[in-house]
Amino acid sequence: MYYLKRDWQLYALMLLPMVFIIVFKYFAYTGLSVAFLDYKIGKGYAGSKFVGLKIFEKVFKHRDFTKAVVNTLLLNVLDLIFSFPMPIILALLLNEIRVKWFKRTTQTLLYLPHFLSWVVIGAVAYQMFATQSGVVNALIANAGKSPIPFLQEDGWWLFSYVLIGVWQTMGWGTIIYLAAITNVNSELYEAAKVDGANRWQQCLHVTLPCIRSTIVVMLIMQLGKLMGGSFERIVALSNAKATEFTTTIPVLVYKWFQGNKFSESTALGLFQSVIGVILVIASDRVAKKLGEDGLL
């Protein structure tokens, strides 16, 4: 009560976000019961028949389920391999820039893609990578090479998907790592210099070990998203010619919901969330066994 009276303005500011979280996060849990019901809108929760795990059996036997799981894991593993290290590398590079105005300008430009809607990014991507009229293929044609179907062929679509994702996320991710780097004790760098370490060796043997705990926490959070994925990103970049990798769990949940398959879409979403929680807990325990603080 003492802190409540002293900082009541801060608690008042926190009130609206907390109401939002309670209503849209915790109250929404009641809707999970749909995954165990033969849900009919007209009958509601109480009138719909309870069927236990039959909905899950139906989901797991669906012809698109395996493909959605495989594609979701593939896209997220590729994101983990290529997108996760980039903010760390960028943060290390930005930390080495000594000209302040150039560093701030570069940081701002790198952050901008995060604030762009995937609708905008998708439209720009098609303008740049279109086979006939795209800017990139125009440059390739001027160099005497054949146009590349970046977004019209499955293999190239996968490459473009990962590349665009790296570009969109790498700048924003540097914020956390730069904040961690600023907390590194400057005396450690001085000691490394005395021992004859150059800039690269200081980065490798001082900076990286000091931000290792932050990297581990971010990795655990990223592993929890392996069964998730960005619905907006896939929809913005999808088209009728490249369809091999666009069937993922979020897309399938949306399609089933559109088709009034409320029980199936809820069951699939619940399955995705449970696997995500398991991955977070498992990776956290592994991190703790390896001597890290972990997340939980």
3D architecture notes:
This protein is mainly α and 296 residues long. 69% of the residues lie in helices and 1% in strands. It has 16 helices and two strands. The protein has helices spanning 2-6, 8-26, 44-47, 54-60, 65-82, 85-95, 100-111, 118-129, 135-142, 154-182, 186-194, 199-210, 212-223, 231-237, 249-258, 262-289; strands at residues 37-38, 49-50. The chain has a two-stranded antiparallel sheet with strand order 1-2.
Q: What would you call the structural class?
A: mainly alpha
Biggest beta sheet attributes: 2 strands, antiparallel
Mean pLDDT: 89
Helical content (DSSP H or I, runs of 4+): 55-70%
Q: Please tally the β strands and state the result.
A: 2
Strand composition percent: under 5%
Question: How far is it from the N-terminal to the C-terminal residue, by CA?
Answer: 28 Å
Helix count, DSSP H or I runs of 4 or more residues:
16
User: What are the secondary-structure elements, in order, as H or E?
Assistant: HHEHEHHHHHHHHHHHHH
Globally, the shape reads globular
Structural Rg: 24 Å
Could you give the order of strands across the largest sheet? Answer: 1-2
As residue ranges, the low-confidence spans are none
